[in-house]
Amino acid sequence: MKKPFTLICTCAAIALALPGFSQAPAMLQPVPMPTASPDTSPGAILKKSNGVIKKKLPDDLPQEKLLFVKYQPLTLPPEGPKGWGIQRRNYFLKKKHNDVFPEANKQLQEAAKLYPYAHRITTLDSVAYYQEHGYKYMLMQSSFNSVADGTFQGTTGNTIGTGSPGGSTRVMTTTSVDLYVQELNSGDKYVFDDFSETFIYYYKGQVGMLLKKVDKQFNAKKKS
């Protein structure tokens, strides 16, 4: 800060002007600026990415602890917006989320029991805490927050007409979602599979994909 620095310099100048004061003035050391704490908010954890490794799991996964992240309810206003715009669509997507996430979490609870290594089920806002207590990885998919942040696309259909009778074609488009194990410290993502965004709440299938990859890569399978 400028004020304390000026005061110290003034005092030093007065001392140097006194008779018999012959000691060389000491160099003032710069005060180190405080380092910013890393952003460990849920949104930052999902966006953190250092590198992407395809078609494999981390080599040390059997020796490390893994987090499974369950869904939480989303806050909704008492009434939805009027009209048929994007805000109303997002409102009903969030409302649907609140209807289905308990079943998704129940699926996760059951499916995670078959994971053969050390693990814990937690919420996204608790990941940073467990990271500090020895958890190195988490299972995640790239559309986990898509309903909350309004980016969910799912499967959409468009009719393409040719101008002739019976010449229209219905084209269905689905958004692909990456399924990966993320290293919490570096942000590295080990993308080992993908699925349609329509199935983001189908935890039984997602964990099943992980178990299949674990069995293939490490020849490990937990007895049910």
Automatic annotation (TrEMBL):
Keywords: Signal. It comes from Hymenobacter properus. Residues 1-24 form the signal peptide. The keyword Signal applies. This is Uncharacterized protein.
